[in-house]
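Help! Submission page says 'invalid entity' but I think these are all valid:
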Amino acid sequence: MSGRESPLRAAALNALLGVVILILLFPFAWMIMMSLKTQVQNTAATPVWLFTPVLDNYRNVIERNNFLVFTKNSLIVALAATSIGMVLGLPAAYAIARFKQRGLSLWILVSRIIPYITFLLPLFLVFTRLGMIGSYAALIASHLIITLPLIVWITIAFFEDIPTDLEEAALVDGSSRAGAFVRIILPLVAPGMVTAGILAMIFSWNQFLFSLILGGPNTKTVPVAVFNFLSYGSQDYGAIAAAAVLITLPIILLSLTVQRYIVKGLTAGGVKG
Amino acid sequence: MSLAPTSTSARRRPSGRGFSAWLDRHLRWVFPLPAVLALFALTILPLIFNLVLSTQERSVSTALPSSFVGWGNYTAALQDPRFWNSVKLMFQFTLIAVPAQMLLGLGLALLLSRNMRASGLVRAVVLLPMISTPVAVALIWALMMDPNLGVLNYFLQTLGLGRSLWLADARLVIPALALVDIWQWTPLVSLILLAGLQTMPDEPFEAARIDGASPWQVFRFVTWPMLQPALFAALTLRLIDALKTFDIIEVMTQGGPGNASETLNVYAYHTGFEFLRVGYTAALLTLLLVTVAVVAVGVNLLRRRA
């Protein structure tokens, strides 16, 4: 796939790539700059490029808007939806990989094609009837729609990579199949579990619609809190930018650790509804 | 395990009794069962329930009685100008965003497939737009597209192009939203295509070089045909997601100005959770679902013929 390039051609292509990267990065850079400027600088007629950074916007968002409470809610929901997704999803993925139950993985398509709001409307009615709106349980259950298929899909590939000899050896040694799964196979797919877990956390963290409708005042997640904060007609640009930075930062850090698998995750799961 | 006497292992072979042996014999069904039941309860049942709801005149409030109206909600939707407007906008958005993403994504994939020193770093940068929280993406673009203070208008003016109203202009709002979608999802297209490029064998390229093919000929007759599977995968994915776009639109414009960016997904959300017309919303969602499914199947038929 590699052709020989003249130095001139290489320089031109690198410059082009540089421009593309600049465009992709600019919104992030601008967001960070806005979050570090004062309101006066942010509302200046000509953009202010050089300034002394201030942290007031972050202080505002974190102290006045219960940002840490919402972060805690997001973490509870994401961790629970991911853990339950793992407990349910790993055995399923193993069985699909070992017994070639491709038909079973069809449900991924269901969660991929159907707009999330189609599940949400009935779930909303049921949870309302059960008095569960605003509970962590309702949010976690809805986030399972995202995390479970994603975990199954990603880990199937990892289970398929493990040679069957290893389990057969364990079976000969007198282990049960289920025992071999727990003691031999799971430790071997640890990297796959980490990848699937981090991607599931990211998608749960990013989820907006389920949290918006099924969450309550005490279970509001970060994206919903920031959305509300904006729709109250806030003109505090620096604070909005600071909030955007605070939502984005954790997932950027997390995603860098599973960089290589992100495309697989995005292709399998479904990020939006 | 070395401590276990051989007699126990003989007893625990699949022919034995007890839970462990039973589990081993039925592992193929028992292992996936919890996940299947959970997804049945969370996706298939709601889907069926949604179909039932779509035949009813019903409000979220239980105080009001619900009644069976059969196809009523569907015929109402087909006579609703706001429904047709939302369908038109949904396709407008998709037909601006997706072709642009495919084209730019292909270009970026070709740029990324060259041998570079910092390729790991570059790929990490390319990931950023698509893993970012949609609400944060929407907020930051809304600030950049602010007609008075937004930095995009500053750039336009510096280039001598004059200011734009962006999201506040009924004719520009869909292209402006599509621009955000293009920024966010072009990287995914390019990474899928890049994966396709990297799995290609070297031989056809060497053969073409020996035959003295020009770079364009190599692309047209070697790269392009081999890239088809990746192209269709990216196209299917992006079409499905673009038709369903919700977060960005709802956060940036709430469907406005007026109804100028109220795509079907957003319209359904408003009828369902603002006006609480459950039955009608369910019908809108079924129509959306059918549209997305038809498009997905259509692209796949195209793939078979290609």
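Support: the input was valid. A stray whitespace character was the problem, and the output above is from the cleaned input. Chain A has a mean pLDDT of 86.
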